[in-house]
Description:
By secondary structure, the protein is α/β, with parallel strands linked by helices. It contains 14 helices and 14 strands.
Amino acid sequence: MRIGIVTQYYDPEPQPIPGRLARYLAQRGHSVRVLCGWPNYPSGHLPKGYPTLRNRPAMQDGVAVLRVPLFPSHSASGLARFANFTSFAASSALASGWLKNADVNYAYFTSATAVTAALVLAPKVPFVLNVQDLWPESVTGSGMISPTVAELVANVLNPWLAALYRRASAVVGISPSLTAELVARGADLGTAQTIFNVGPENERVDIESANPRFHHGLRLLYAGNIGVMQDVSTIIKAMALIKDLTDVTLDVIGDGVEAQGARAEAANLSLDRVAFYGRQPKSVVEAAYSDHDFQIVTLKDLPLARMTMPSKIQEGLAAGMPIITTVAGDVTDLVSSNKIGLCAKPGDPTELAKMIRRAYSFSGDEIDGTRRRAKTLYDTHMSPEKVFPKWESLLHEVAR
């Protein structure tokens, strides 16, 4: 097949799914072209060598890549984010001819504007929509814009989104509740489906030998963005409630607009067993998943959060890592139904502290069983060997 990929983010940006899918398809013998933006995520700044005054296609790992201009930003400013999204929409639409000969286009929906080029080509080239975030709630519930502006944004985007879902040849959500909501908003029930995001590129765990439990007490990990939605403050408050457990530690790897506030809160509560490491290379993060006992996954309790499946879930499960979560909805359902961790109410430090105490009391057999179930879930539903063939099959079906 001739396959086009439309995505605002692409390697080396840490949104690996489009790049990994592109490489997989190219290795399978398909001709793959990617239309993406100048790399600026998550720093909000262009690396050396950008911007360039001309859009020049380049081969990258067997994939033809065309990068188009955008306004670089990843700040808490709603206006700057608006400029970032809309500038890519305009540039990619103008350059959509790059994909006009594709048999099918794959559109990586991180924002409502990121898939504009696929929609422009839709009369002639069918496209599959991979929805990562529910819009307009990702914007209206972010806290970056006022309620009045949020209502205006919703009124403008909702009709357009409904048309987009109907126009797509297939709409794919990353969690069951998200897929159901997309159908309710216009996606075709007959073609809509759920495909979990793929896990890490390199699996690096041997469940038979990798079990750090009791080596140094209970080691907890939070890895990922530290933003408004992530509710890291609840984790910090919970750690303050278990100071009597002197061998429980929390390592925080990541950065974001709320990172400084989280550090200050931990310092004010005299939490010397909470360590912040900032943004780290991929290899460090991958090693951390194998070196800790539980990962903590938190989000604020919003309708949007109940339909999401953060990528850190797959990262941890690939290492057989149990989860402590406050994310209601699909994440809690996944954890509880598969018995791969513990669940607390969203935004409740007291209950989260109770779950940490419960994890601390796990016997060796309990944690071994939880780790094995976590790895089995990953191997069955989220591994590259399971996920990428699903995408190839779907793209082939749509192209036909």
